[in-house]
Automatic annotation (TrEMBL):
Full protein name: Phenylacetaldehyde dehydrogenase
Record carries keyword Oxidoreductase: yes
EC primary class: oxidoreductase
Taxonomic superkingdom: Bacteria
Annotated keywords: Oxidoreductase
Aldehyde dehydrogenase domain boundaries: 44-503
Origin organism lineage: Bacteria, Pseudomonadati, Pseudomonadota, Alphaproteobacteria, Sphingomonadales
Single GO term (MF): phenylacetaldehyde dehydrogenase (NAD+) activity
UniProt similarity note: Belongs to the aldehyde dehydrogenase family.
Active site residues of this protein: E278
The enzyme's E.C. designation: 1.2.1.39
Record keyword Oxidoreductase present: yes
Length: 508
């Protein structure tokens, strides 16, 4: 009896990476402006590196202020081009569905591309970045036919019969500036609602991670989105600053550090463009003595060590009740020990490198600062012995941290957990809220009444009770205090990219 034919084995992540590297290396990647890949007007390029090896993947066009001028002009033309401006809401939604399908078609390749450019393991980029982006585009595709104005009852002094209604119009040309920690996801979070609302966009990815942004724009063109609607400028701070200050840009959306967010607010004053900001965080993880310590420890470890701690919502401040403090830290350390550190192209790896040498130096300096201030390195604290190449940093716990230490007050953006002990509930809330940031918080307790009370008392845009780092396109995401302005996801995101017009019609 003859054997049945076997299905061909799909190429491994390393094989995909080798194929991509061979395709990318020969010529610099261009900017995407008005539907075409073009070099920077200056002719300059820069290298994008693989964080796991430090090796150059390819050269990328270094856009500047002159390129921003060209991209803004293209976006303004596209904004009034009937091919986009007169497109029905239904057809606009269909284009976004088609783009989601194309991302799904290219999912494995995009996951590897993100892995070699960002360092996050390919298995996680596939699950988080790419799958999340597919869902984001499909979610906002559905909003195109459901987002509009309303008819309002009014009482004019004249007694005239008046029909009053509102409409929603696209805010215009949007400059979208995204970070390097979740390049594809953050691009989708901004591009999808902006296009759903009928805007045109200029996407500025971080210089460390430009590759998936460029590929996303190529797929958008393949999906049928008209030229000039979705442009990409790669480059450094000069390009971002030019985009923020440009009088032809109507709105800026930014995800990144609070320091840069403040600079963006200042730069946007020229034409008083709309600004939305998702900024830094220093999220507390609050553990009550009645909590399920096994579940809490696993989630706390994931909350600080996922993506090597390079997450704005990272639960980097642990407030453990004195009665369970030592046991909980031991459990979190045990969870950290389960992580497999290595090149994200290898099967089984779930903890990759930091994004760059600059970021490695920043994280290392904070560990030194914490020790100088009196904290003890319980685990980690430096480069793993087996990973001399690349920008790897061990999962780290700083024990005995104090509320006034810099490692407790400042965002490190790396796999460093600062652990504090508490015994007084009122002081706990005061400590948790004693921060410039207010992006998110985690609460662990089996007393649901205490969970609700603490959730109400903590000043944060998102509070997770007996879970952490859960997000969904349907629920708003953003921060209190210096963690930002506005909310992404849901109807709130559509509102960020639209203007409300009130129309009065005299029927008398």
């Amino acid at each position: 009896m003859s054997s049945q034919p076997t299905a061909p084995i799909a190429e491994t992540a390393r094989q995909t990476a080798d194929r991509l590297a061979a395709a990318l290396a020969p010529a610099p990647r261009g900017l995407i402006i008005d539907g075409r890949a073009v070099p920077a007007l200056s002719g300059k390029t820069f290298a994008t590196e693989n964080p796991a090896t430090g090796e150059t993947i390819c050269q990328v066009a270094e856009g500047g202020a002159a390129d921003v001028d060209v991209a803004v002009a293209a976006a303004r033309r596209a904004l009034v081009n009937p091919a986009w401006a007169a497109m029905s809401a239904y057809d606009r939604g269909q284009l976004l569905y088609r783009l989601a399908d194309l991302i799904e078609r290219e999912a494995d390749e995009l996951a590897v591309l993100e892995c070699i450019d960002n360092g996050k393991p390919a298995s996680l980029t596939r699950w988080v970045e790419i799958e999340g982006s597919i869902k984001t585009f499909r979610y906002f595709a559905g909003w195109t036919t459901k987002f509009g104005g309303e008819t309002l009852p009014v009482s004019p002094r004249s007694g005239a019969r008046i029909l009053n209604y509102t409409t929603r119009e696209p805010v215009g040309v949007c400059g979208l500036i995204v970070p390097w920690n979740y390049p594809m996801s953050m691009a989708a979070w901004k591009v999808a609602p902006a296009l759903a609302a009928g805007c045109t966009v200029i996407l500025k990815p971080a210089e460390q991670t430009p590759l998936t942004a460029l590929r996303l724009a190529e797929l958008a063109l393949e999906a049928g989105i008209p030229a000039g609607v979705f442009n990409v400028i790669t480059g450094f701070g000069e390009a971002g600053a030019a985009l923020v200050a440009h009088p032809g840009v109507d709105k800026v959306a930014f995800t990144g550090s609070t320091e840069v967010g403040k600079a963006i607010v200042r730069g946007a004053t020229g034409n008083l463009k709309k600004v939305s900001l998702e900024l830094g965080g220093k999220s507390p993880q609050i553990v009550l003595p009645d909590a399920d310590l096994g579940a809490a420890a696993a989630s706390i470890a994931a909350g600080i060590f996922f993506n090597q701690g390079q997450t704005c919502t990272a639960g980097s401040r642990l407030y453990a009740h004195a009665a369970i403090h030592d046991e909980l830290l031991d459990r979190v350390a045990a969870e950290a020990a389960k992580l497999t550190i290595g090149n994200g192209l290898d099967a089984g790896v779930n903890f990759g490198p930091l994004v760059s040498q600059e970021q490695w130096d920043r994280v290392a300096s904070y560990v030194e600062i914490g020790q100088a201030e009196g904290a003890e390195v319980m685990i980690g604290g430096g480069r793993p012995a087996a990973h001399g190449e690349g920008f790897f940093f061990e999962p780290t716990i700083l024990r005995g941290a104090g509320r006034d230490m810099r490692v407790v007050r400042e965002e490190i953006f790396g796999p460093v957990l600062s652990a504090l002990s508490w015994s007084d509930a009122d002081d706990l809330v005061a400590q948790a809220n004693d921060s410039d940031f207010g992006l998110s918080a985690g609460i662990w307790t089996n007393d649901i009444r205490q969970g609700h009370r603490l959730a109400a008392a903590v000043k944060a845009g998102t509070v997770w009770v007996n879970c952490f780092n859960m997000v969904d396109n349907a629920t708003p995401f953003g921060g209190f205090k210096q963690s930002g302005w506005g909310r992404e996801h849901g109807r709130q995101a559509m509102e960020l990219y639209s203007e409300t017009k009130s129309v009065w019609v005299n029927l008398s």
